[in-house]
Amino acid sequence: MAKLADSAQVSAIPSARKRALHRTNVTGWLFASPWAIGLLCFYAIPMLMSIYFSFTTYSILQPGEFVGLNNYRDLFHDPLFWKSIYNTIYFTVFFVPLSIFFGVALAMMLNMKVKGMAVFRTIFFLPTLVPQVALAVLWMWLLHPNFGLVNGMLANIGIEGPSWLGGEAWSKPSLILMSLWGIGQAVVIYLAGLGDIPEEYYEAAQIDGANWFQKTRKVTLPLLTPVIFYNLVMGMIGAFQQFTLPYTLTKGQGTPANSMTFYVMYLYENGFRYFKMGYASAMAWILFIIVMALTGIIFITSKRWVHYQGK
Hints:
Blueprint: H1 2-53, H2 70-75, H3 79-110, H4 117-125, H5 132-142, H6 149-156, H7 168-180, H8 184-195, H9 199-207, H10 212-240, H11 244-250, H12 263-273, H13 277-305
Helix pairs in contact: 1-13, 3-7, 3-8, 3-10, 3-12, 5-11, 8-10, 10-13, 12-13
Transmembrane segments: 26-53, 89-110, 122-142, 175-198, 219-240, 282-301
Pfam family, one: BPD_transp_1
Keywords: Cell membrane, Membrane, Transmembrane, Transmembrane helix, Transport
């Protein structure tokens, strides 16, 4: 009888473990359920619906009719669609490399062991805390062609300032200048990457007689490439989603001569001003394909220039 009781107790142990594991799984799913429900309701289902809407004439007010590839076909014959792509690519091609260059340069300067460096780091990070709408209003006054501070300072030294936001030639460079003013968040990430580089590498380079430029080229930049890679991907995605600054600066008009009509602005206009939600959904999926393709290219090419410590 004692042996039977012992065997019953042994067989009961796996069952108890199974019940405990089940309770743990249920508890875990209960804690994760708010996030899972949010992901399903606000991301997954809307994405799937947008695929269907991109093949319809859905307009929010009416269910619309299935039109197949008509929305995509109309987009490729829409001059403003191509103009918005050009503006967005122009901004991305110039802003992303410049943000990486100035971000790394600022981070290297802010990484110097100088008294009071924490104050300078705070100063360069503060612009990122300013809302983009307020930032746009501030720069509208600074770059005003007639009584703006920038042109006023240029006039004092005998230089006639450009029209900035008022001219087609200078509107996008002006926007790039404004956007570069807020790279403090990327600088913080670069600073973290610089702090992760072991001092032993610099000491070894010093013993070999390397100067500052050689240390930067052979030690700092190669070991900082994982952070540069991250900021490159995030910067590219953010640049293709540029919306708040140009929309605020032009009050949604994209002036002058649509030189400030960016892709997401035109998508928003079609969806929420003209209620062409099917058309806007098609634009959204084209943007998704472009961003995914560029991200894939960056990931593939990263094997050649991204270096990780210990590899």
